[in-house]
Amino acid sequence: MTRSVAVLSDVHGVLPALDAVLAEPAVRAADLVVVTGDHTWGPQPCEVLDRLVALGDRAVLVRGNADRELLQMARGLDVGLDDDPLSVWGAAQLGPDQLVLLESMPEQVTLDLPGFGLVRFCHATPRDDAEVVLVDSRLERWHEVLADLPAEVGTVVCGHTHMPFLRLVDRRLVVNPGSVGLPYGHAGASWVVLSGGQVTFGRTTLDVDRLVRDVVDGSSWPDVEAWADETFRRPAGDAEALAAFGPRDGR
Fold first, then answer.
1. Quick one: DSSP state of residue 186?
2. CB of 64 within 8 A of CB of 37?
3. pLDDT above 90 covers what percent of the chain?
4. N or C: which end of the chain has fewer CB within 10 A?
5. Does the reported pTM lie above 0.70?
6. What phi-psi label fits residue 107: left (phi over 0), alpha (psi between -120 and 50 degrees) or beta?
7. SS3 label, residue 7
């Protein structure tokens, strides 16, 4: 029986951050590791996928919108990201096995966990891999995005917005573990453990200079140095991210 689940999300091709989180004692002790999407769109997309696959049956991988978009681009579809160099480069990196992996990933999974009952894991919301809901989204918005969820699912775990939170929505528990690779609002990689009805948030401290150096050394993307410097040294704050995301949640 699965008693504890470590939940990671939004790794975004940042392998050193993923490795640091996987080394956390609480994550290593979990029965399962569920990763709720956006493994790719980042400087080391293939390396991250390979690391997750190496976890074997202990890992449950959910596909996020970035994974879907890179898959579609690699298949020759226009998803409106041809002007984004990282998307174009990332799609070109994916090999046949990784394309098959992304294509076969579920968009959501449901697990029965002691203390929680049925838990739905998805990337953004149970009905859409790219729509936005936030910790302060109005209750009517939450009712809208959860409308098709079976009543017996009492907990929803989602990612996508890169900010950790926990809140109740009309008796349902909603958990966002935050982001491993591109956290907003604070430094360090965020994650969560679900065990025995308890939600425990974790944050792995990362040395920014070392992170920049390791990502630059580990990526073949031509623009990685400038990207890593901007992304890791000047991450978006939570207030900035909420302001940017706010219009997309219908407010």
1. S
2. yes
3. 94
4. N
5. yes
6. alpha
7. strand
Q: CA-CA distance, 79 to 81, in Å (whole number)?
A: 6
Phi, psi at 13, each rounded to 5°:
65, 25
Q: How many residues does the chain have?
A: 251
Tens of pLDDT, residue by residue over 163-215, are 999 999 999 999 999 999 999 998 899 999 999 999 999 999 999 999 999 99
Q: Which of 115-138 are b and which e, b meaning 16 or more Cβ less than 10 Å from the residue's Cβ?
A: ebeebbbbbbbbeebebbbbeebe
Query: Strands (DSSP E) along the chain, which ranges?
Result: 4-8, 32-36, 59-62, 108-113, 117-122, 153-157, 165-169, 172-176, 189-195, 198-204
- The secondary structure of residue 18, as a DSSP letter, is H
Q: Give the amino acid at 218.
A: G
